[in-house]
Input
Amino acid sequence: MDIRALWTRLRTPVGLRRWELERTCMRNLLGAPAERVFFKDLESRFLLVSRGFCVDQGRGRSVDELLGKTDFDLFGREHALAAFEDEQRVIRTGEPIVAKLEREIFDDGRPDAWVSTTKMPLRDKKGHVIGTFGVSRDVTAQVRAEEALAQQALHDQLTGLANRVTLMDRLSQALVEIERGRGRVGLLFVDLDNFKRANGSVSHEAGDEVLVEVARRLVRACRRGDTVARLGGDEFVVLCRALRDDDDIRLMATRVLRAVGRKFRRDDNDLTVTASIGVVVTADATADPSRLLQDADMAMHEAKGAGGDCFRVFDDVMNARRAPGHGFDADMRRALDKGELFLMYQPLFSLDDGALSGVEALVRWQHPQDGLVLPGRFIPLAEERGLIDEVDDFVLDEACRQLAEWAKREACPATFTVAVNLSGRQLSDPKLAERVRSTITRHGIEPSRICLELTETALVGELGEAARCVTALSRLGVKLALDDFGTGYSTLVHLQLLDTDILKIDRSFVQQIGESGRDHEIIAAITAMAHALGMTVVAEGIETDIQLGELSRLGCDVGQGFLLARPVSPDKVFGHLATFAALQRPAAVGC
Ligand code: C2E
Ligand code: MG
Ligand code: MG
Output
């Protein structure tokens, strides 16, 4: 319908002339309590403001009281000046400023707020600019959720120390400094002796208190510029930069041993904790950060083997003993040849009606000596040794074969999907999309029934290359999911840049539901943002009824977790078809 026809339709039933209608619309807009609309003259004085503006920015002053005032009467000087400059630019250029994120600092001690403001030129009938007008939206909740997300992604929640992601980033930076002639880099891998046993004999809170205190002591023992990180459990790492010689790091190790080994006083009881420390030091700027960490870990085990409460420095003997991954390479090749790898499938359910919506394929290794090995133990090594393509090719091929077989069954829902994890390393392979296409075609699978799960950290590392890869995959018609969302560097803004269909909220958020109100806010913000971008939201790692209920309430679309179903063998998957009851009642099946 053209605009004239629409206008006629509008005008007739309402019975208003155009100017009357415009005025009515304007009155409603300005009277709406939630809308912050303002009009200003050429000197940035308020000409007209909406009711919402009076309430929020005007601290309850009436429209009349605000007329003629400027931002300098309402906000801190810095913010007011920036706003004034923006408006003068709009007036000068006639160009709008769209959705600018601004921090509002009030001069009456109110907490800061974040707003997104769009400013446009205000023109008279002849088109001359006579001022500006704008609309602003309070986005404080979204910004706070982003900050919390960043904090959570880069820090250990218990101690506030850096986490593994941050440590590895700082380690890479420190190695670059070697190149600039700033000394050596050392790592202390600190593991508490017998903590697990001691932790079992005291309350969970007491165990946490010890960890927090150890963290505090480590920070105090370190120099400015060093990084103290917690990797999880009772494992800490100290990164020391700019060391003059190997003695410096030995000195640090001794200081750390002493600091940790001092008595803890708790409820009139003395508690002594000791540590085993593995030390590695390098002057090689090209050293591989993960290899350094592994070396420090190995040296730490030597210290443990020597009875604990001591440190060991990684040396040539340990290096020779490691036989760098050759054992692993041969083992993995045999596993691929002899069919020792196999897949389990973890069901996913719609949180709306409880229907089985698909499965995630999870690889397992039936090792002839070690028994069942989980992917956390061999995927990182396969990545490091350049064998991950072969592992992931096997998984995709097997998952497609299985799906083709399932699809023939009457019981298989038409929209049933199989999700397959892709290693982050694959995203730098320009032939990835072609490999995926050929596997899917070989098995005659509908591409939309395959979902590829990509990890967020990998995507953000090299967004340019990864984004190209993501686009190529998405053209194939397969679904793409962003896995473990919230554990990498990514911000909500990255979501807009990547063309993915599904977002999987990492289980670390899900598992804190019920413990901290903050996680509710974060999940709500992530879900709202993902929905606004047309993405489906999956919550991973649901283990309790409370988590399930909350996630449904917060608008998550799909759920996965031990409460609903554990990973199962292919023949058990359709046993979950009528599992709506499982959403109400814990009924974990499988292994
Ligand atoms: P992921 O992709 O996030 O897979 C989910 C992991 O969480 C699985 O562990 C699953 O068993 C576990 N899980 C599911 N529900 C719960 C729950 O309620 N509580 C707890 N505590 N855990 C739950 P799994 O099988 O050990 O896999 C670990 C990771 O290894 C996967 O994380 C994925 O990143 C990687 N992986 C698994 N299979 C493959 C594969 O074929 N290729 C690649 N590249 N990576 C894989
Ligand atoms: Mg996954
Ligand atoms: Mg995951």
Remarks:
- Confidence is low (pLDDT under 50) at residues 585-591.
- The domain at 155-321 is CATH 3.30.70.270 (Alpha-Beta Plaits).
- The pocket of C2E (ligand 1) is lined by residues 346, 362-363, 374-376, 379, 392, 395, 421-423, 453, 483-484, 507, 540-543, 560-562, 567 (CB under 6 Å).
- The CA atoms of residues 58 and 74 lie 7 Å apart.
